[in-house]
Every structure is written in C-alpha cells, then in structure tokens.
C-alpha cells in the first residue's frame, strides 16, 4: 500500500489535535491512553517530517537555480576583460537582428595595432593589462544597451543598436577613433595603443551577423593595408580623416 503525506497546514494540525482529544475523551480504558497518545504522536511527527522535507527540497532547488545562473553568466564572460566572450557576443547580436529587422545599427570590428610588439617589448602581463583596461573603457564609452565583446586576442566587437540617422554613422566612428588617442595604460611607462577599425551598417551591409561581420572585417583590413590606425566603412570604403 502506497502512502502519501502532504505538508501539514493549520487545518491538518487541528485535525490531528481533534483526533487526539476525541480519542482520549471517549476512552474509558485508562490502560489504552498511553497507546493512543503514541499513535497520535506518530501522526503528528509524520506530518511535521513531510513539511520539513518539502521545505528542504524547495531550498535545495532555489540554491541550485542560483548556482546555475552564476555558472551561465561566467560561461558568457571573457575572463580577462569581463566583457561578453565571442559566443555570447554573437548570440546577443543575432538575437537583436532577429527581433529588430526594421532598425539600424553599426557593427564595429577593431584590432589593437601592433599588439604583438606590446607583448614582446613590455611582457605579456603588461599586454593583459592593456586589454583589461581597454575593455573597461570601451564598455564605459558605449551606451548600456550596446553590445561590447572581446572576440579573441586583441579583437573587440561593438554593436551600436537603434541608430536612427545616417549622419550619426561617421560621428560615432570618429568618436571611437578619438577614444584611442586619449587612452593610456601604464603607471610608470605610459603607452597609448592605436587601433584599426572596420564598420558595417545594419541592415544596409548585411541582414545576418555573418554578413555584417564579413563586411566589417573587410573594411578593417582595408585600414591595415593603408597603414593602420584608422577607420573604414564597408562598401563605400570611406576612409575617414580623423581630427
């Protein structure tokens, strides 16, 4: 026979107490009173145990879900910069594109120029510090709604959402380039890294992440072929003169 005990609420408590009182009141045999007390006590104990078990299961499930959230968040972060990693960055951009087919956006792909030289001359620890501070500053330069990620090595991606006017395209590219002119790393030896930046416009240059990335990456390499430290837009190859 299968038995199921539900958590004991106030009505259950009254029921058990009522059973106990009725049991004792109706009994004329004083020798059966201890036995009846024991039976009622067992019923109360089982009810309390069932409630305790339910509470324990609830607490365990809560902490499991919280731990799962922490692990998922860590899995989506770049360990060095705390920005979104490559997988998370691509996912966030793809999700935005799928849910906002009629909006405009800018995809920036940027490489730190001559980063290998930084590692070779200043050491990998200093190179890591450059990337770490660069990630922090880039996140601060962008709106909270924009997507900022480190996708590997010295490559970063920024996706600016909901850019309503085309006149803003060049302004944002210029602002990002000027950012590197003001950026310095190092307590004793000051270092100002430069960057090559390629830009693609959504949806003009592509309606999928893959198309946009290919376009921005192509623009990026046009900058590198022309001496690095600059910005180029895909398609029109607008090599913007920076102030």
Distance between the termini: 85 Å
Radius of gyration using CA atoms only = 32 Å
**Strand share of the residues?**
5-15%
Tell me the helix content.
40-55%
Poorly predicted regions: 1-8, 237-243
Tell me how many strands there are.
Answer: 5
Name of the CATH superfamily of the largest domain: Reverse transcriptase/Diguanylate cyclase domain
CATH topology of the largest domain: Alpha-Beta Plaits
Q: Spatial order of the strands in the main sheet?
A: 2-3-1-4-5
**Sheet with the most strands, sense and barrel status:** 5 strands, mixed
CATH class of the largest domain: Alpha Beta
The CATH architecture of the largest domain can be given as 2-Layer Sandwich
Return the average pLDDT rounded to an integer. 80
Any chance you could write out the topology, listing elements then pairs?
Blueprint: H1 10-25, H2 33-75, H3 86-99, E1 105-112, H4 115-122, H5 124-141, E2 147-152, E3 155-160, H6 167-182, E4 195-202, H7 209-225, E5 230-233
Parallel strand pairs: 4-5
Antiparallel strand pairs: 1-3, 1-4, 2-3
Architecture overview:
This protein has 243 residues and is an alpha+beta fold. The protein folds into two domains: 10-75; 86-233, Reverse transcriptase/Diguanylate cyclase domain (Alpha-Beta Plaits, 2-Layer Sandwich), CATH 3.30.70. 54% of the residues lie in helices and 13% in strands. The chain contains seven helices and five strands, in the order αααβααββαβαβ. Strands 2-3-1-4-5 form a five-stranded mixed β-sheet, with helices on both faces. Strand 4 (195-202), helix 7 (209-225) and strand 5 (230-233) form a beta-alpha-beta unit. Helix 1 packs antiparallel against helix 2 and helix 4 packs across helix 5 (124-141). The longest helix has 43 residues, at 33-75. The protein is elongated and about 95 Å long. Residues 1-8 and 237-243 have low confidence and may be disordered.
